Imidazolonepropionase
Amino acid sequence: MISLRTLFLISSVSTFCFSGPLVASDQVPGAPQTKPILIRGATLHPVSRKSIVRGSILFDSGRIVAIGKKVDVPDGAVVIEAEGKHVYPGLIESYTDLGLREISAVDATADHTEFGSKNPNVRSWVAVNPDSELIPVARAGGVLLAHVAPAGPFVQGQSAVMQLDGWTANDMKLLAPAGLCVHWSSMHPSEKDEAKAAEKQDEKWQEFDAWIERAKRYAKREPHAVATDLRLESLQRVINREVPLIVSADRQAAIESAVLYAMKQNLRLIIYGGFDATSCSKLLKQHDVAVIIAGTHRLPLRRDDPYDAAYTLPERLRKAGVRFAIAGEGPGYPDGAANVRNLTYHAACAIAYGLPSDVALRSITLSPAEILGVSDRTGSLEVGKDATIIITDDPWYEPQTNVEQAYIQGRKVDLTSKHTMLSEKYKKKYRQGKTEVEQ
């Protein structure tokens, strides 16, 4: 006779084993490339140079080996006739919590914020869920890489550039760490009492200064003389300028203070947000500080800001000579990870407000690759780079454009998603309903 305890264990194991498909995507990661693949007759958009009309691109073993008007077909190659199509490098989401958050209203599916306010040792890539339903949706929109960053009230943790295909988070990792994320705006508390605000600001500055100084002393310690401190260990790459400090800052005072602090401590710096970046563009340009714009689909920061301030920000930064990339809806948005698929709309909005289309394309491909330190691998169609590319039926900025094929390091990836499966389901449902009515 089976005991109640045994029945309970069987029930628990069954629930664990069979509940997975209900919360995970069914897409199988792409298989490694085994034959050369030639895409022929398409309009190629290398980004790093002018477009090639009716060109060809050849990739093998996951790398681009030839691109141009005429490319020889090697023996055994798979030839894709793509006349009338467009070929682009895979789009890059510059700042997101994709893979760390599934459903914002369900805490159990969100792993984007660690407890506490100072977590430089947090590594975002180890928590990325490769089976997230949101990853195939982003992929279907042409986004093949994402800079995944943790959230938090102060020192948030380390970010990573992830490829959006793979069995495990380790398979997906392209660069880790990519930077240390800090919510710099928390250094500038908004208090009506100016004296109180200044006091809180001084406290934050002293606190952060103390962390940096402790990390510098820790680096000079005698081996085995001091117990290992993971938080101070994680700051070493920042102090040594191996990875940048990526600070969230929108207001002019926060941006300027972040730049001045980075120069004082000799740190590499990237600004995320940057709503007021044009107000301090000379400072940013002087110190070659890049800006990751936190989307164009957002409201003005102040009551008296122009209604289109966010829409025109990319063009204003371009005119000012400040390097920038355009991100979609990042961790600060209620449903940021779910809307990575809208990245092209953010960049296209900037085109409508003055940004040249070639610069807009660069802002979601090569510019983020350069800013995040992966431009030797991706971001443009060049010989020697990863074959991370998309094929579309129309130009990328058109609302009706569909991504027809996608490859990550030469692996053909599945473009079905929960959205496409639901679409097919209800098309079939209403076709059957119509047939039944006609009968």
Remarks:
- The radius of gyration is 24 Å.
- Residues 1-23 have pLDDT under 50 and may be disordered.
- The longest helix spans residues 194-219.
- The CA atoms of residues 88 and 121 lie 36 Å apart.
